[in-house]
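Appendix C reproduces, verbatim, an entry submitted by the partner laboratory led by Prof. M.T., so that reviewers can inspect both the input and the predicted structure.
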Amino acid sequence: MTYPIMASPILYSLRNCPYAMRARIAIFKAQQQVSVREVNLKNKPVEMITASAKGTVPILVLNNELALSNELALSNKLASSTVIDESIEVMLWALTNNDPDNLLYQHDPAALPNMLSLITEFDDEFKACLNAYKCAKRYRENNVIECRQACEVYINKLEVCLTQQPFIMSAQESLVDIALLPFIRQFAKVERQWYLRSPYPNVRQWLNHYLQSPMFTKVMVKRDLWVTNAEQRQ
């Protein structure tokens, strides 16, 4: 799928949302210039909801005119805009426009479908296990170990890959690495002491490579909440 490129796209984001995080990582890697609007999902800006009724981040609006639109004109402006509100689609938009590190493995036509298949597996299956694990730990339920072991099926799969090579797909970084990174980060934080002693040294090394990088520091910079023009006038 190809997307039109417009000046200064707007990205509605939330700093610690893993989906928004991986979108920002891809945008950073692709050296794309976007205007990041940090939002509060308990008080969603009308511009964000108008852009995508889904109402979750990330939302990428490829039309900078929206930044100057008033609320009355907003819906008309959006009619001619392109909105991308799935994190993987945002990542593909960014890297299709510019991929200096060849994260999409353009040298191998079969690579991208394989990457997307693995990402989907983690998004659909691992994420459900991770949510259950986080809830069990947070509410001190008696099935924390069982929930963790369900996650470990997927963590072990990564450990096997990373035993053979420094990145998940091969010796070269790929879309998969930056797409899974935010979720593995969440897993590592649930039971921190257990994780540090867990039998996954290569996963820890891989994760630390990212968390200690200048890239991650820049992607995770704290931003003030974005306020609408109407709020500024109050």
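The domain at 111-213 is CATH 1.20.1050.10 (Glutathione S-transferase Yfyf (Class Pi); Chain A, domain 2). Additional entries are available on request from the coordinating office.
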